[in-house]
Amino acid sequence: MTRPLPLAAAFAARAAERPSDAALLWEGRAVTYGELYAMAGRARAQVEAAAPRPDGPVGLRVRKSPETVALVLGCLMAGRSLLLPSHELPDLPLKELYRQAGCAVVLGLAEDPLVDVVVEPSVPAAGVRPEPRPPAEVAEDATGFLLTTSGSTGLPKIVPLSQGAVARFTEWAAGTFALAPGTRVLNYAPFNFDLCLLDVWSTLASGGTVVLADPERGTSAGYLHGLVAEHRVTLVQGVPLLFELLARGAAEAGPLTTPEYLVFAGEAMPARVLAGLPPVFPDARWFNNYGCTETNNSFLYEVDRTRPVPAPLPIGSPLPGVDWLIAGADGRALTGPGQGELLVSTPFQTAGYVNVPDGGRFGPHPDGVPGRVYYRSGDVVRRDDDGSLSVLGRTDHLVKVRGTQVSTQQVESILLEHPAVAEVAVVALPDPVAGHRLHARLRLTEPGGAGVLALRRYCAERAARAAVPSVFETVSEPLPRTSTGKIDRNRIRESLATA
Description:
Layout: H1 7-17, E1 22-26, E2 29-32, H2 33-50, E3 58-61, H3 66-77, E4 82-83, H4 91-101, E5 106-108, E6 117-118, E7 143-148, E8 158-162, H5 163-177, E9 184-187, H6 196-206, E10 209-212, H7 221-230, E11 235-238, H8 240-253, E12 261-264, H9 271-275, E13 285-292, E14 296-302, E15 317-318, E16 323-327, E17 338-345, E18 362-363, E19 374-383, E20 389-394, E21 398-401, E22 404-407, H10 408-416, E23 421-431, E24 435-444, H11 452-460, E25 471-475, H12 489-498
Parallel strand pairs: 1-10, 3-4, 3-5, 4-7, 5-6, 9-10, 9-11, 11-12, 12-13, 24-25
Antiparallel strand pairs: 1-2, 7-8, 13-14, 14-15, 16-17, 17-19, 18-19, 19-20, 21-22, 23-24
Helix pairs in contact: 1-2, 1-6, 2-3, 5-6, 7-8
């Protein structure tokens, strides 16, 4: 089997083949492949000057922009690994992440207390052609990206991805979603989120065009709908919030007819959001994408639009080269229907964390079968008689209430099916008698759309008594979100504990 090109080399090849094609669209500005390659070359020279030795990562302190894309490509072209955390993290945890990763220097695009060197990857002046330099050769197992987990349980974990893992992923993504010149892909996720491996880096490795969404307007339904419609986007990937916003925009401005692929990722898609998508995207194929930062994509499920849509969506079939199993209550691999924790081994996964012990997350087959390293996903899944797999919830979202095991995610799913509920978070708080008590914070589609007693009755009719929250709190403001667009349950839990 031919080894796929490393990301930087694949991008350089696309720039050489079609330099006048649009690589990025941002705020009414098109950046061609030739221009982006020139910008990346300028950034590369500055990276090499700031970090002469290629044996350690460089830290980046950046916001989404074409210049940031050029800086990332410049690092990879120089053969440097890079730590790309969320710019929304406070200074102290960011400094600690740079220290733990061993970053010799922190690069940014503007003056900042944490930035050691300001990089300016601007396009050279007209008539000035930078000397073409092929990207540095890199070993397949050399680290490229260092991404971070969400940090919902404290300081984010640093997840290194090898050059080979990223190259294998970009090759899979191009073949699965027909990424090629002429493809236009919406990038909604922040650059530190692993979803960008598909919607930014795989797109650029394949010669497509990335339509960058401004994070400052990431909750504007009209703005997002306009991006997809105006730029004739063909692939949309994102968390449920994105699709909810696009459906809201379509209610005002009409359906979106250019998308050919919808990729659901990050969180389980609520049935209510799925039900509203057919008139919004009349010609698109739907895919439920399952994976995590540590393994990247693992399973893919294409929704059969001619049949009733199941809820929750199954996670589908394993990707080529992916091995998996379900560990039952006794720790052994299940051989038939049942539920337990999902373990996966993928061609795209990390070998372990940089800054913390893996805590047993990575290990051999539980029954001693040699040859693969598996990642314990922390997701509880169910395998039905027909072999289909569905995620029931997270192991860290399972709590005991009066001696009964409850999944807070399943309670959220029940409440989201109520037509008056727009979004909900259910968090478990310590209780000296019950062990835990559940607190549901909900935002309704309309103020007064449902009373607390009606919501409690609705939940009680569909869940065990222990799973009915003790408190139903309705709020008018949107629930807080993490930088990746997921509901920030940790912040809600902390606010309740403080109160």
